[in-house]
Amino acid sequence: MNNKLSSYVFYALAALSVVVFGLYIFGGETQQTYNGENYDAPNNTDLLLYWLYALLAITVAVTLVSAITSFATKLTTDKRSAYTSLVMTAALLILCGITYAIGSDKPLDLIGYEGNENQGGYLKMADMCLYSIYTLIFGACIATLLNSFAKKF
Fold it and tell me: Does residue 2 register a pLDDT over 70?
């Protein structure tokens, strides 16, 4: 039953995503003027962005609830596995802290940009995401190579 429910939720969210994307693509355009030049802007850009924010919030909430319930279940059955998952979560948080600390807060020179996101915290957060992704991909590649060599010996 639980597996069917998750399948139904997945199909409903996928169908709704297709509808929102269709509205974005085929929902028409309006003329926007920026720096004296005319641009075509889709009518449903806000709808698409809010839907993406909602999907992100749902993903974060489900991940946190799943991690907490998994930790609580493992704590009663297999304490070593529970502590291992706790250490890995702490390592990920430490990685994010380190990459945030080494991120640059120097404003970017963006021609025509007048928003307020080109400053300290936003730039450090973007760097944190990029550096963390690079580090995790590098670690996954090294682990894959080591695993393939370990199987040969």
Answer: no
